[in-house]
Write a structure and sequence with these properties.
The complex is a heterodimer of chains A (101) and B (403). With 101 residues, chain A is mainly β. Chain A has one domain: Archaeosine Trna-guanine Transglycosylase, Chain: A, domain 4. Chain A is 4% helix and 31% strand. Chain A has 1 helix and 9 strands, in the order H-E-E-E-E-E-E-E-E-E. In chain A, the strands form 3 sheets. Chain A has a 4-stranded antiparallel beta sheet. In chain A, strand 1 and strand 2 form a beta hairpin. Chain A starts with a helix and ends in a 16-residue tail after the last strand. Chain B is an alpha/beta fold and 403 residues long. The chains are: A mainly beta (101), B alpha/beta (403). At the A-B interface, strand 7 and strand 9 of A face helix 8, helix 9 and helix 10 of B.
């Protein structure tokens, strides 16, 4: 597949793309004029980095901050609870009472 | 033109439902059996399970029992619970609706009350059937929106499409309500800028702060594991997506459960209790929010979902708008509108907004929504505590507009 149908940019200030069609490992993603192979499968609705992101950096989606990075991510990396967190209220998983973020 | 059911207070309904209401969990079985035996799409079960008194529950029950979609009421009480059954019956009677009250301990138990209830429903329905019909204009329509089972597609497709439809309805003079301040954490500043007065803007920021504080004490945001599995990582990310349901109209006011907006426009329903948290989570699941929207007069609710909620509601139809194309394929028979086609490049946000608009008119005109056809009539009401809204919350009322 081509990245044009798999990723959308919601706002020009965003530093993440939203996945709108399933990405398989090895799919070639076109980001910022370059291409790179997807390092993991990513399902629809999830986010990937538009550029390298450092711990503490705000994640921008819809042109607005939606949380902060907790670990480094390279361009094309999946961005989720393992490398970012809320700046408001911690999210939780299906394991009762555990705070993942 | 929509043909409504004209009520004595001048409001018009899009359905003519008879509700059977249990006033404590101990009367739930009897009330449910009455509704099940009648098995009619326009006889619905509602109720409040608690035995202790609660002003909020009484207010919501009164608002729903006198909702324009309701034509008649049968109350089922055990007898010893504290719910003010006489007061509720009187409120319904004063609204011009037929009402009957059965007290299980007085009627003589389960079987006798079920039999008596069946007869009571028939009498109430016979009176309700004579409700006069009248043409209903768009500026008499109250439309609510909620999202449930959100994922990373919700904020891209279904939610902004509802926002487009809301913009059209507000422009046409209708009343639109969005809600769940706990799911607007992170949007408070941009939302306040849309308020019709600066004082209302300050109230909007304050009510989102209240929500944040409340949820922080609860230990959980309004964020379910399925939200994360669907690609949402944080509360504020979910909020930004949820917020897009509100469209771009100015925000005319803040209301609380049971407040009916005084005029057309866009309103924010504050669902988070006031004061120290006392009774637990603000709304334990989506239907608790839908019940509050109906208590504010909502004739129907636009429900967006990415993961695939299947719920409907008693009293007011729910229209399902699916955000995620994969979910839309898996749960096709539960959805009214597939906004996921936007991601498949088969349609546009504006076109889906128009589809939602047309679907609202059709359902308001009597066509059954998918969840209605499937028999979904969920209802849940729990304990809460609210203070009345402040003077800055409804600028239109302060300046003497229609009230």
């Amino acid at each position: 597949m081509t990245s044009a149908s798999q990723l959308i940019l919601l706002h020009e200030d965003d530093n993440v793309f939203v996945v709108v069609a399933p990405i398989e490992i090895g799919d070639i993603l076109t980001i910022g004029g370059g291409t790179l192979p997807a390092r993991e499968g990513i399902t629809v609705g999830h986010k990937i980095a538009r550029r390298p992101l450092d711990p503490g950096e705000k994640v921008i989606k819809y042109g607005a901050p939606i949380g902060s990075m907790t670990a480094h991510a390279d361009t094309g990396d999946w961005i989720h609870m393992h490398n970012m967190k809320s700046d408001y209220i911690a999210a939780h998983s299906r394991v009762a009472g555990s705070d993942v973020a | 033109m929509i043909s409504g059911y004209l009520r004595q207070d001048g409001r018009k309904g899009i359905r003519n439902v008879t509700v059977v209401a249990y006033l404590v969990e101990c009367a739930h079985h009897v009330a449910r059996r009455i509704v099940d035996k009648i098995d009619d799409p326009d006889v619905h079960l509602i109720g409040f399970p608690g035995c202790y008194p609660n002003a909020y529950a009484k207010r919501v029950m009164e608002a729903i029992a006198t909702h324009p979609n309701v034509g008649g009421v049968v109350l089922v009480s055990l007898g010893c619970e504290s719910f003010d059954r006489a007061g509720l019956a009187e409120t319904v009677r004063a609204s011009g609706r037929p009402v009957e009250l059965l007290v299980i301990q007085e009627v003589g138990g389960t079987a006798a009350t079920i039999a008596g209830g069946l007869a009571a429903v028939e009498r109430v329905r016979a009176v309700a059937a004579d409700a006069p019909r009248a043409a209903m204009a768009l500026d008499e329509l109250v439309i609510a929106t909620i999202c449930g089972g959100s994922d990373g597609t919700s904020g891209i497709t279904a939610n902004p499409a509802v926002g487009r439809a809301f913009d059209r309805f507000v422009a046409a003079g209708a009343t639109c309500i969005f809600e769940e301040t706990g799911e607007l954490v992170g949007c408070e500043t941009i939302m306040a800028d849309r308020a019709v007065t600066p004082a209302l803007g300050a109230e909007i920021e304050a009510c989102v702060k209240k929500a944040e504080a409340y949820y922080t004490i609860m230990g959980f945001g309004s964020f379910a594991p399925g939200n994360a599995e669907g690609g949402l990582t944080t509360q504020e990310e979910k909020s930004m997506g949820a917020y897009s349901k509100s469209g771009s109209s100015p925000i005319s006011g803040i209301i609380k459960p049971g407040d009916v907006p005084p005029a057309g426009g866009l309103y924010l329903l504050d669902v988070v209790p006031d004061g120290e948290p006392r009774f637990g989570f603000p709304n334990i699941s989506d239907n608790a929010e839908i019940v509050e929207l109906i208590a504010c007069g909502a004739h129907l609710t636009l429900f967006t979902t990415g993961r695939g909620s299947v719920v409907g509601s008693a009293v007011s139809p729910v229209i399902k708008i699916c955000a995620n194309p994969e979910t839309a394929r898996r749960l096709a028979a539960d959805m009214d509108i597939n906004a996921g086609r936007i991601l498949d490049n088969e349609t546009t946000l504006s076109a889906v907004g128009d589809e939602i608009y047309d679907r609202v008119i059709a359902v308001a005109s009597g066509e059954r929504s998918v969840s209605e056809e499937l028999g979904h009539r969920e209802f849940i009401l729990t304990y809460k505590a609210f203070e009345p809204i402040g003077p800055a919350c409804l600028p239109a009322r302060a300046t003497g507009a229609r009230s």
